[in-house]
Design brief:
The complex is a heterodimer of chains A (177) and B (267). Chain A has 177 residues and is mostly helical. Helices cover 71% and strands 0% of the residues of chain A. Chain A has a single domain, classed as Arp2/3 complex 21 kDa subunit ARPC3. The longest helix of chain A has 28 residues.
């Protein structure tokens, strides 16, 4: 594993790269592919496989980059990603107590829902373009559906990737032999 | 009693957030934000053009049947336009002679700031805005018109930062332009994006006669956008006898997915 000196630097680089890639590359793709939320997936991966402190670092770095690049008010993504990481940590500590693929998928689905509610909630306060209650809009649920589908695919890939890199995620059985 | 540890990630994160908000609010991080934004602009531009070319090749593959029909239609149109063009060339030459004779000032006295698109932003249900690598430091301000390399309207500047600007597409809801139909009466109206796909022109008086295929241009009444830039072509006219105004659906003549370079018109 990464040592304590390099670990924060590693997460700063990863968070910066994912935010730039999300903003410049993924958002410009067509609707289906443009819904892939790389920043959130990186955040959840960090929280699930590393620790909450690293996840907070990723949330702040990604949020900062998205805020200086984008045209929402400053702090928009900082708030969204920070609150999502706190909620996900609470979920992980109190509800999803084991480190399994199923936990990771549930975590990623619920965090996607929380992230989207926060994004649309904050946008409805700050933008005149969005009116009405977002959960009653078809667009919100279609967009959420795409994001959840991408997130599940990413979870399957990342969990298998991580389990090949570490023995912590492998099942073990108590044998009487 | 609950104790709050100083090394609790929530406390540390919250402290950093408050510090960032404060520094941004008093303007201390503005230089850093601008420098970081400029630093990654070349990379953003590269990533955007890759993404844009992937998107357009994907949509091109999906629309082969549509494209074949479009080619057949355009071939017919080229023949008609070639005939029309020859007569317009005659008129243009005559016009130039008369302008010289009258010492007429060209009313398109505008300069353009060329910019690369570096990102797209989802700004609403049917609205995707473009972000360009020019901002207030390059003389841009909200309200300026944005055109493509052929001089057709892409949209207009909505917001500016020091080194970047956000532009709405003419097809995006809320992106309004003062427009005129190129017909005998020079009918005027207001265009607004419709579902991110077409453009709706409204406030057209009932008595004005507009026809399908009429060209729609900017009227110049916007103040910041000069007259004469092409917005699109009329495809449908909605004329209810009990309404005060009639409406027209306008099809833009450019593919907004393929854009990588645009120009902001600075009057």
């Amino acid at each position: 594993m990464l040592n304590k000196v390099w670990q924060p630097l590693f997460f700063i680089v990863i968070a910066t790269a994912s935010a730039i890639w999300q903003w410049s590359f993924i958002y410009a793709l067509t609707d289906l592919f443009g819904q892939f939320n790389l920043v959130l997936i990186v955040l959840m991966f960090t929280l699930f496989f590393f620790d909450f402190s690293s996840a907070v670092l990723v949330a702040i770095m990604s949020g900062f980059w998205l805020d200086i690049l984008g045209f929402n008010f400053f702090g928009f993504y900082l708030i969204v990603l920070f609150v999502t990481s706190i909620f996900s940590e609470w979920l992980l500590a109190n509800w999803l107590t084991n480190r399994s693929l199923y936990s990771f998928i549930v975590l990623i689905i619920i965090s996607t829902l929380v992230y989207n509610l926060l994004v649309y909630g904050l946008q409805s306060f700050s933008s005149t373009e969005i009116s009405g209650i977002v959960i009653f809009k078809k667009h919100f649920w279609i967009s959420l559906g795409y994001q959840v589908a991408w997130s599940i695919l990413a979870a399957l890939f990342l969990f298998n990737f991580a389990s090949s890199a570490t023995r912590r995620l492998k099942p073990f059985f108590l044998s009487d032999k | 009693m609950m104790r709050i540890k100083s090394n609790n990630p929530v406390v540390v994160g919250l402290a950093v957030l408050i510090l960032l908000f404060f520094l941004h609010w008093i303007g201390l991080t503005r230089g850093l934000e601008g420098a970081l934004s400029s630093l990654i602009q070349p990379l953003s531009g590269k990533l955007y053009s890759w993404s844009s070319s992937i998107s357009s090749s994907y949509s091109d593959n999906q629309d082969i049947a549509y494209l074949q029909a479009e080619i057949a239609r355009l071939k017919g149109e080229v023949v008609d336009l070639t005939v029309a063009n020859s007569s317009f060339l005659e008129i243009a030459q005559e016009n130039n002679k008369l302008r010289k004779a009258l010492d007429f000032q060209d009313n398109k006295d505008v300069s353009a700031v060329i910019a690369s698109i570096i990102a797209k932003e989802q700004a609403g249900e049917d609205r995707r805005d473009l972000v360009i690598n020019r901002g207030s430091q390059d003389g841009l301000r909200p309200g300026l018109g944005v055109i493509n390399e052929d001089g057709m309207i892409v949209g207009k500047v909505m917001e500016v930062k020091d080194r970047t600007a956000k532009i709405c597409l003419a097809t995006s809801p809320g992106c309004r332009l003062a427009a005129a139909v190129q017909n005998q009466l020079k009918t005027q109206g207001l265009t607004d994006g419709d579902l991110g796909l077409t453009i709706k022109m409204s406030y057209i008086p009932q008595l004005e006669k507009i026809a399908q295929d009429d060209l729609v241009i900017t009227s110049g009444l916007d103040g910041d956008i000069p007259r004469g830039f092409v917005i699109g072509r009329v495809t449908q006219i909605i004329n209810e006898s009990n309404e005060v105004w009639q409406e027209a659906t306008i099809e833009p003549l450019i593919n907004f997915d393929n854009l990588t370079v645009v120009s902001a018109i600075v009057p």
